[in-house]
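Provenance

Sequences were taken from public entries as deposited. Structures were produced by running a predictor on each sequence independently, with no templates supplied. The record for 3-oxoacyl-ACP synthase from Mycolicibacter nonchromogenicus is shown for reference.
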Amino acid sequence: MNPPTVSLIDVSSYLPGEPIPADYYSRYAESDSLRDNLMFRAPRFRHHIDDDETAVDMVERAAQGIIERHGRDVIETVDILITHTQLPDIPFCGSGGGIAHRLGMQPSTVLDLHNGGCAAFILGINMARQLLAAGAGRSALIAIAQNAAGQIFDQPEVRSKSQASVPGDGAAVGLLALSEQSPILDVECRTYGQYAGDMTYTIDPPRKWWQPGPGAPYIGFTEDKITKVLARGNRQVPEVALAVCHRNGLSPSDIGLLVTNQPNRVFLRNWREALEVPEERHVDTFDECGNLFGAGIPINLDRAITQNRVQPGEVVVMAGFAHAGDFAAAAAIRWGGRAR
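Predicted structure for 3-oxoacyl-ACP synthase:
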């Protein structure tokens, strides 16, 4: 007996505040050995979470599009809630409980993910698909909040670093259900645990991130680490995307829309070329929003649907990698159209 079909019914998103231009960071830029590295070429704009805004606030605002198109009862009756927050509002706690309460939900299953990173939306799709197919409910909501740009990378001691001008904040939600509307064709998730230790959070002078003391934490990039991350990302994203395509008898020419995470322009170009997907079929918002981390894939998918860049019946392939390359994932859906 074949398992029931699970579809990605819709996505909606939210960007906080007014766009922040690149020259905002040029005022603070200092001499930095990584300043000219291709990894850190600044986008034209990005958005930052407001000072009084929380991850739960962002997700609530991101969900409004789905509520407007499908009705509040569709959200309130969701059985499974899966969340990923780049920077939890409270240590130790994920955002699942707060999101459920704010959206009027009483899900039977709430899962807060941490290891998915920039591919968290695809990891959430994989988990929701398995749970729904196994009978754990009839619908699921995946909520992703990227909120580190305005809270970590804009700290006075961090914003002068080359890495600070690239991230942007945003949130998105995806609605899944037992349905034939926009079937999930396949998902590929791969863990590369040997690379997990290459993602470091550095403070000068050294201390644990949770210990009090001077200095603001930042991501510990070096030329050697960047070289390794570039090599891994260039390889992993096309590999997982092609794995999904090949299992379903698809070639890259069958991809109607490619949606990836967007660390920088170099990755975006290299992934397109590796998959032989023309630029017009690879959606990104890098110059408008910067690196949106885990929120990038659903925000860009929402943007593409809104702009009619994907038509009913076309195959959408989502792919991304996380952190320093310790996780990569891809998913393919056959888009069936959005409820108006």
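The radius of gyration is 19 Å.
The longest helix spans residues 223-247.
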